[in-house]
Amino acid sequence: MLADLVNRFDPLPKNSKLLILGAGFSGQHVAALARQLGTNVVCSRRKIQSQDENCVFDSEKQKIPSQITLSKVTHLLSCIPPDSTGEDPVLKCLKSNLYKMDLRWIGYLSTTGVYGDCKGRWVSEADLPNPQLLRSQRRLTCEKKWQELDLPVQILRLPGIYGPGRSAIETLQTGKAKMIDKPGQVFSRIHIDDIAGAIFHLIKLSAKGQRPSIVNLADNHPSTNLEVLTYAASLMNCSLPEIEPFEKASQQMSPMALSFWQENRRVSNQMLCNKLGYKLIHQDYQSGLEDCFLQAN
């Protein structure tokens, strides 16, 4: 829960200003933590939908934040994926502006998909990326563009993201759950509490001169689709659909869904947790789903 995070961290330095570009599910949670800690936060979306979204950024329509919005920004988090051409929208529209800011930290949310299919083995930041999917290839290209900047950039690679309102709890509630059995297939995950917590932890370390260029954000327990849904059902005291072999289920999957099942890897968080000292709030899917269930009831 957000309260657990608030109790862990001190506010950012006085006069800090955090700009979150593309503040969706993850970005809004980071913003909520920052605001609870008293930080000035500005969030962008392509279209303003709530009072927590302060400005519009839509590269396709050439709508960018004003100079007033960009002024005095000290910390920046980009949650925006590559555009349809594979370019990074932020760098395409705002690259020159970045050099005019007094930026102490920049985070770019990427994907562990850049590691490609690893046949279920563990991968860490030391492994060379080998993306097979086009969207992951584009992500890697954007990562490199951010790293080429002479600015304090950290690439944060995320696996499957979940949290209250977007978890196996809701999948079961809406009747969309599918018990798909693909022997040996696991997925790594990260709860949004730990995305926000890890980001604040990394900002603090960066201020002390410790800023690895790439960090994986993942929990301790890569697990199967069956394990996660079974545990969610136990919390909800509800029944599960019948188990379906992957070979059969795949025949009705969309190309996007099928692509997730084509890759298999276990994402190591040893850099984040052992070397950099971050303590996970949700070390595994059990803890994370318990939080989701509690907040849904």
List keywords for this structure.
single chain, 297 residues, alpha/beta, Rossmann fold, two-stranded parallel ribbon, 12 helices, globular
Characterise the protein shown here:
By secondary structure, the chain is an alpha/beta fold. The chain has a single domain, classed as NAD(P)-binding Rossmann-like Domain (Rossmann fold, 3-Layer(aba) Sandwich). It is built from 12 helices and 13 strands. The protein has a 7-stranded parallel sheet with strand order 3-2-1-4-5-7-11, sandwiched between helices. Strands 6-13 form a two-stranded parallel sheet. Strand 1, helix 2 (25-36) and strand 2 form a beta-alpha-beta unit. Helix 2 (25-36) crosses helix 7. The two termini are 14 Å apart. The mean pLDDT is 94.
Write a compact overview of the structure shown.
With 297 residues, the protein is an alpha/beta fold. It has one domain (2-166, 189-221, 267-281): Rossmann fold. It has twelve helices and 13 strands.
The overall number of domains is 1
- Give the CATH H-level superfamily: NAD(P)-binding Rossmann-like Domain
Q: Which CATH C-level class is it?
A: Alpha Beta
Indicate the CATH architecture.
3-Layer(aba) Sandwich
SSE topology:
Layout: H1 2-6, E1 17-21, H2 25-36, E2 40-45, E3 55-56, H3 67-70, E4 75-78, H4 89-98, E5 105-111, E6 122-123, H5 134-147, E7 153-158, E8 160-162, H6 168-173, E9 179-181, E10 189-191, H7 192-207, E11 214-216, H8 225-236, E12 243-245, H9 246-249, H10 255-261, E13 266-267, H11 270-275, H12 285-296
Parallel strand pairs: 1-2, 1-4, 2-3, 4-5, 5-7, 6-13, 7-11, 8-10, 9-12
Helix pairs in contact: 2-7, 8-12
